[in-house]
Amino acid sequence: MAMHATDLFLRPAWRIVMPAALAFSLGACASTPGAPADAASAPASPPATRPAPASPQAFAEVVKGATREDGHLPTWRRDDKVWIELAPARLGQPFLLTINITGSVGQRGLYASQMGRSWLVEWRRMGDRLQLIALNTAVRADGDAALSRAVREGYSDSLLAALPLASAPHPQHQAVLVDASFLLGDIAGYGSAIESAFRLSYTLDRANSQIERVRQSERLTAVQVRQHHTVPRLPVLPPAANGPAAVARPSPPTVLPDARSFFVDLVYNFLALPEQPMRPRAADPRLGHFTHAHTDLTRDLPVQPRVHHIARWRLEKADPMAERSPPREPIVFWLDRNIPERYREAVRAGVLEWNLAFERIGFVGAIEARQQPDDADWDNMDARHASIRWYVGIDAASARGPHHADPRTGEILDADIAIADLFARGARRFIVDTPRGSTEERLAELTAAWRGEGAPAACHYAREVAAEAQFAWELLEARGDIVPDGPQAEAFVQAVIKDVVMHEVGHALGLKHNFKASTAVSFARLGDAAYTAARGTSGSVMDYNAYNIAPAGQPQGAIVNTTLGPYDYWAIEYAYRPFASDEEVQGLARIAARSGEPALAYADDFDAGGLGGIESFDPLANRFDLGDDPLTYYERRLVLSQELWQRVQAREPQAGEDPLRARRAMLSGFGPLRTSADLAAKYVGGMVQVRDLPGPRARPTYTPVAAAEQRRALTFLTRHLFSEDNFRFRPEFLRSLPTDYLDRNVAGPVSVPELVRSVQATVLDRLLSAGTATRVLEMPLYASAGEPVMGLDEVYRRLQAAVWSELRRGGEIAPLRRQLQREHLQRLSALLTRGSGALPADALSLQGLLARELLAELDHALRRPGGSVTTRAHLEDSRALLARSLDASFLRQP
């Protein structure tokens, strides 16, 4: 309903909120040299005269000529001016403020279609000013008046915006107006993400920013704004620096017409909280759900006062008494109109697959997938529409399944899954020469901080899947099983998309990663086509599941996991099975008690390692493995890489084909090996961890990996990944691998030594780490009586003997082997000269002993006649470095 009022010019009422630290410093008193020591004896200065503040203008005059739009927070608009109308009942009433990104730069993590931050907020009036306050929900004392006062005094809220009233109260309903242009400021903190990505201080240009439109509903006001960011000049860069300094160099965006200017589109969602809060559901550590946690000070009996409520949608049966019933309100995911039509059915299938889990607990049609019309006048980034968004970015190959929830209960109110277009292209081999862990990738990860997410919320499945898909594609094409434009290739791409959508929808339903789920399927079953088609290749779609490719001539099961696993059904049951309030605790306990079943194995991101420098020690908790015997799987991956290299070298290039095809195939064989090297090394000093709670049937939390399995892993690493024979390429093949002469993403010939070094360095870093040494040394404490253990001296001796095997038998040392020996010696020298506060003293002593033995072997080898000049120079250089390191180690001793 639109209404018009009188016209009146109004000054912009927005002001920049001064950072608290700056305000404090400006307001602090500073002593003046020569001032009286006793301030009380000094004559008081007369108080400064302050002009009386101007009274806000009358409501009717402010909105003269403006159009009103009803909704949760009614808005008024005249030309480019927008005011928000706040009734007295809205003041002091908590609601959810969320910020989503609908348009961005398209590079280094600054992408469109991303969910941003959210806060529980309220409006507070301070005389003729209004404050938008983010409420502190981290610590609570509900129901205890005294403690609640202590919490309010002890834990501060945060100020998101402050602004003067744009009008006096309305004479009848007492509502006031605020100028909505405060939303053109950087409430989202997006400027930090921009600076992290480009190392440039772009300025938010308010003069060229604007409110685009407002969308209203009874419980939501969504304001879409376009912000302009600019920098007056781009810096003239000094010569590039090596090492960490290179990361800090300004690096302007490369995808813009002019790198000095770009726009960012945001949607601010002012969302009313549910009138009746959903009954929260307690988390259980035996299975994985995202949680909304707080400290409850009213509970003084538990040692741990932290309360974790799982994140879940409010799903209730339309007929609570029926065994099977549709929900009162289904969970609806809108398929973005930007999803290419050829992929929409695969996306829809990935969404609807989850109905299988809900049907088991009595819900019919719990999830719906609806297509956004091409002519829709609404944006599915507003908080009314959970969605599957398709976005582009020059370096984007990821998918995310985040959500916004009621922090009081964990009720999910909105979720917008973002899937990169480049991910789908990656399934068709468009990713080339992009090493994981590159500077570009690290900068992209830095931009995630502005969302306020914890590490477990990050998901890089699609990016990693793209690399896995590339390897699978290259090998299948080399075998002749698929051709780029054939039906098998299209089926493969569609399966990959469904797999990723299932994974991200699982996140949007509240499920965390499960990096032990792949062990739920026996290795023998992976070759069973019927079994894997019906039941999948893993126990969960929430794992990072590798592609199931059998060696040539062996039975082939389903390549891509495209159905839910036992764990997925279990996790959905725990989160969504309806219970009467007096039955919920016992019912949830019965569900969680099944955690000991092998098909329900669970481990999260921390168990798999790699977050915040955490080193994983459970060889069964991994990203990208398959089967209940991961070590056998790693041995298979080496065989598959060698098969790919043999086939691509034997193939004759055809006129008119992609000139980068052979280069891409050759490089893709190394990615899986780097992963396999790191994961296989986890067996050495490994501990299998389970999440049982105390009880008569509880399994031990930690079980040492059997010594025989540790030795088997060490043999695989040192015999196969240290062998030069496994990395031989024909010279004529290497000479035929061109770069991309038009785009120059890479330059020059392929460096086989560098590719091999990346694999072998991964092994050395893991085996020589402080964590591995500590666990191996402490393993006897965990072993049962008479159980054999592998000592650290055996680990270090076998490793050193494998690296320096040529010293005993004599003869020429091949280039790749000399490189491996230098890598080992560099690490050994660093330990001897600089020490390590983390490495146990016994490990340092062993390294010193073995270094002296190695020095003696080098002396003996140098006395042996023969060998090339290069080999002799290498041995002399190695001997000199080791001798200096031992001398330094001796001088360093107290």
UniProtKB/TrEMBL annotation:
Sequence ranges of Pro residues compositional bias: 44-54
Identify the InterPro entries for this entry: DUF5117, EcxA_zinc-bd, MetalloPept_cat_dom_sf, Zn_MMP-like_bac
Give the DUF5117 domain ranges.
Answer: 114-317
Q: Which residues form the EcxA zinc-binding domain?
A: 487-808
Q: Does the keyword Metal-binding apply?
A: no
Record's superkingdom?
A: Bacteria
Residues making up the signal peptide according to the UniProt record: 1-30
Segments for region (Disordered)? 35-55
Keywords for the protein's UniProt record, in alphabetical order:
Signal
The keyword DNA repair belongs to this UniProt entry's keyword annotation? no
Q: Which one of the record's GO molecular function terms can you name?
A: metallopeptidase activity
Pfam families in the record, alphabetically?
DUF4953, DUF5117
Which PANTHER family does the record cross-reference, listed alphabetically? PEPTIDASE M1A AND M12B, ZINC DEPENDENT METALLOPROTEASE DOMAIN LIPOPROTEIN
List the protein's name.
Metallopeptidase
Native source organism of the sequence? Caldimonas caldifontis
The taxonomic lineage of its organism, from the top, reads: Bacteria, Pseudomonadati, Pseudomonadota, Betaproteobacteria, Burkholderiales
